[in-house]
Design goal:
5-stranded mixed beta sheet, binds adenosine-5'-diphosphate, about 20% strand, 3 domains, alpha+beta, binds magnesium ion, Four Helix Bundle (Hemerythrin (Met), subunit A), 9-stranded mixed beta sheet, Ribosomal Protein S5, domain 2
Amino acid sequence: MSTGKINVAVENIFPLIKKFLYSDHEIFLRELVSNATDATLKLKHLTNIGESKAEYGQPIIEIKINKDKRTLHVIDQGLGMTAEEVGKYINEVAFSGAEEFINQYKDSAKDSGIIGHFGLGFYSAFMVAKQVEIITKSHTDAPAAHWTCDGSPEYTLEEHDKSERGTEIILHIDSDSDEFLEEARIRELLTKYNKFMPIPIKFGTREETREEGEGDNKKEIKETVDNIINNPTPAWTKKPADLKEEDYKAFYRELYPMQFEEPLFNIHLNVDYPFNLTGILYFPKLNNDLNIQKDRIQLYQNQVFVTDNVEGIVPEFLTMLRGVIDSPDIPLNVSRSYLQAEGAVKKISNYITKKVADKLQSIFKNERENLEQKWNDIKVVIEYGMLSEEKFFEKAQKFNLFPTTDGTYLTLDELKEQTKTLQTDKEDKLIQLYAANVEEQHAYIQAAKDKGYTVLLLDSPIVGHLLQKLEQEDDKLSFVRVDSDHIDKLITKDEPQLSKLTDEQKETLKPLIEDVVPKEKYTVQLEAMDSEAAPFMITQPEFMRRMKEMQQTGGGGMFGGGFPDMYQLVVNVNHPLVSQILETKTKKKQERLIKQSLDLARLSQSLLKGEELTAFIKRSFEMIK
Ligand code: ADP
Ligand code: MG
């Protein structure tokens, strides 16, 4: 037996590591299983190239807990180490790595959100163990070695009689880390970090029944089999050509077992130049529950789970997606601010944006109906992307769909083509009418449809920002909500209708109405319109309304505080009811007619509520009794 002192500058880094990484103790298991995986894959490589005489076989990694002895074991059948190698790789490499880590990240280590990304390696075992043993037998003829250390620079190293190849790491769990002796906790960690690692991981056993024999001789046989925690070949490591739609869906369920909705689309990422990246992204059906927060894109490094905080790596608008990204090229052992400034990461983010745009474009081209069907569930993501990523905006213009109130879907080009003949105003501007709510704006939509106009149905909360942007790109295009003015005024190129009222009559009418209508809310506007059009109509100018909506969804507002709710009360002077109001003898009756008409107009805009609605209903009953 030999004893020794590890040559490190920091006398005892153990307490330091414990202190700095307090919240992330659990990563020790990920590190040890990663080392076991590396050791196994290295042996595979050596046997493949004929540099090891060992029989590779079908190695597994086993995790065991011994509650009585308070130990946790990580056992692999990898290439193992000779005593000399233990001295080199553990005493020197692992310890100096830990020392370097501490020196470099002493100050930033408080930022615990990123700490889990640091690969502390073997040394992280000391975060939960008061003593660590390594029993290892190299794949060569060298005898097995037994190393013991309590985290201080002193260690012992002696021969051991282990005869089978591989390494067993034994952690003597510290009294403040009892949780890591609990089966449920270890299972949770293995599932979180190692679910898709490339070597099978055994944790305990389970009962399995299988049938044997035929007919009367049929027997059920109960067997105890290894309980394998992981799927060593997850879908993203396979070639897209080898996967069917069903495989992608099955993998989604594997990733998010608590998700019962099927994903809408998937995108298989696969690039090896200029960086290495694989993965599968899914467009989920976004309902309003908060699962969006919980089930996020997971980031892996060579099949080891790293984090589900992909901020900076995935463009913001795509953080609403789900799935996995695996890249050995994402520099995980650096801080987030560095990560964001890093060119490689920006390239990855751009690549993902491009891939998502290309995929949507191909769905649009090859299975447009499918895209249309799912459009309402994904449009917010697309709109957000168009607003936040210029490159995406350029590509998405080709497949971004505008739903119409008739249930059809048009691209911007198709829209322009279709409306070019009919929906232009005096200045030859294309006026694209839209509604936000079919129920509430029914009367306006109907009026426009009667004239043969196409009305879009745009109801996403951020669409106002997108319309603004599209109008900036094309100054001949103007989006106008159906209720922002009366239809004739919005579009028609014709000369205005002749008024049935004289100027004098109009001068009497206006103050009459203004007396009844609340001034702070409505400006009265007399218009000569088709006598079939409604007599009283409430409109809200596009500009004011849109600015207000944009302000509510962040940015874009031109005015500081809130906007006042200002409406226009458009009175159709050619409607018989308006003449009737004028001809009515008593002032009281006149007022009642105006009030009733105003309320009807408000009703059709869903603006009549509460006390006023109650009063209106009461008044209406009075009138008909
Ligand atoms: P890293 O894995 O980044 O190299 P670690 O601190 O995790 O750093 O491990 C240090 C070294 O110890 C490894 O590079 C490897 O040579 C050796 N090692 C650790 N665990 C094992 C193992 N289970 N089998 C064989 N070698 C191991
Ligand atoms: Mg390691």
